[in-house]
Model the fold of this input.
Amino acid sequence: MTISNQENILEVRNLCTSFFTDEGEVKAVDGVDFSIEKGKTIGIVGESGSGKSITSLSIMRLVQEPAGKVVDGEIVFKGENLLTKTKKEMRDIRGNKISMIFQEPMTSLNPTLTCGEQIAESLRIHQKLNRKEARVKAIEMLKLVGIPSPEKRVKQYPFELSGGMRQRVMIAIALACNPELLIADEPTTALDVTIQAQILELIKKLQEELGTSLMIITHDLGVVAEMCDRVAVMYCGKVVEYADVKTIFTDPKHPYTIGLLNSVPRHDLKVEGELSVIKGSVPSPFELPSGCRFVTRCPHAREICHRELPALETKEDGNQVRCWIHTDQWEKQAEAVSTHE
Amino acid sequence: MFVFIIRRLFQTIPVMIGVTLAVFLMMHLIPGDPAQIMAGERADEAQLEQMRENLGLNDPLYQQYFRYVGNAIQGDLGTSIRTDRAVTEEIFTNRIWITFELALYGTVLAVILGLIAGIISATRKYSFSDVSLMIVALFGMSMPNFWLGIMLIYFFSVNLGWFPTIGWESWKHMVLPVLTIGTGGAAIIARMTRSSMLEVLDNDYIRTAYAKGVHDRVVIYKHALRNALVPVVTIVGLQFGTLLGGAVITETVFAINGLGRLVVDSIRMRDFPMVQGTILVCAVLFVVVNFIVDITYRLINKRIELN
Ligand SMILES: Nc1ncnc2c1ncn2[C@@H]1O[C@H](COP(=O)(O)OP(=O)(O)OP(=O)(O)O)[C@@H](O)[C@H]1O
Ligand code: SF4
Ligand SMILES: [Mg+2]
Done:
């Protein structure tokens, strides 16, 4: 339905990824659309379990089969659908054209390999460097991500480094081959607040220097405000609002986005229990409401919301929202008794 | 590391005391008079007294023990009643090397087969090959050595005539005994490798490796196996020890003149110094192997342990 845009490095169209468990199918990602412009940053926000990580793993084609599977959609990277790529072609893309940083710096590095070896590995695979060249480049990368005395660090094992240092090493690994797209899945959640800021700054600085496009997954709206150009808000496997960052903060449309924002009165401060304002909790993936997924927690819910899933409507400004309030249908609806008051 | 080795070395001291004590007391705890047993049924009282005097059996027990240990440290484990040769000579000229070879090849076989099977199983979880390998492993673990040995002889020596039934001369002689002694270990190592590997494959750093574009094979052998091997090494060490024990049965079945058979024969002939000596040597060997394994383990594990 969307026409491929030359400016877009990545276009995700109707992505559906499911897990097939003993209790049934879990539609972890259910028809997600978004795109990333070259050199720009997109933020994916949403509560735990909304499908953010699975979206990113689907792009990398790293969803663990056979339990999980991308069942539908297209992932168009530079005009080519990644879902039709062979294993070998995907290997050539991973760590080279698209890289990923994970949430858990403490466990994401191999404990039996030195930091240098782990950085050098991608260089040797993708840039065919020999051992010595790769080592030199690894030291260069460590310097680039701001690790002091890189000649010494290159020989150290992950356990010898702090969490923040390890995340820097992860960034060095991810950026070693100068990827066109960097996916950062909650890169700072596990770190101290002061370290968080440093890491984000580093990512931002390197992104600007290297011209990398960035997809950043986060719980933290402060991070979004700081880093992103566009934002996709996810809820229960679906995008509920997709807009430029200014609109998200000044004129949010979806009740869920509004709830998220209200729960963080000041985005420059990290607030514990940030979702306390939205009542109730995320429904179980096995008991999703048949209409709007947010209906069990939405203060505005009317009868139609229970009955029918709203479509993701595109506004004149190109922003999208998935809510009956923002359709012509809404006024025709009789005010229904709110579900939880 | 140096400190660790020294500390570990000191830890073997109580073990060694226990072992020597047990071996020493064995002679005194079995019913009857050692002198009587050694001198034989028809010895008269004077001969017995002479025997006791020779063996120092009239001295207090602790003196006897210290003498025993003192001699042992100097490499004197007494004289065989049966052959009249020094026990150490009997053990070290030939026997111990045969047993060592048997246990070593058995361990090597167990490690190779076990690792291969474990890796195949882990990387194809719940597939046909995984399930069948694990069933075979279960059999391998529960099969007693003597039975397996006899079955192998029956099929491969008697029926097919591929290998000789007894002895320890050429590689052909070695195939069946090594199979017999290695199978149980292979099965245990296979199961251990599988579970350890599955656990490791679930780790975040495996996902990181895939995200770097590393080939599946490299992920398994470089990233996963290294970490998965840590618990397997311990098993291998224990396995080697168990194999020394298993040698008794295997050597008997295949009539191999190793340590195990020496113990059995000596017990039958009531050659007590020989029995004591052999058991002591085996025990020391076991302690030494464990010591080496602990150090190896530490070398591999150093990085993880501090984590
Ligand atoms: N291996 C799996 N088996 C079954 N279901 C899974 C599996 N992995 C993820 N899911 C389902 O997919 C949904 C989305 O998971 P995902 O990890 O993408 O959430 P997330 O938005 O990244 O959350 P978080 O903020 O906690 O990281 C979860 O609700 C979960 O039920
Ligand atoms: S569609 Fe209805 S329930 Fe869903 S968010 Fe909009 S108002 Fe709330
Ligand atoms: Mg996640």
About this structure: The interface with chain B takes residues 60, 62, 87, 90-96, 99-100, 102, 104, 107-113, 121-122, 125-126, 157-159, 170, 173 of chain A (CB under 8 Å). Confidence is low (pLDDT under 50) at residues 267-276 of chain A. The longest helix of chain A spans residues 193-210.
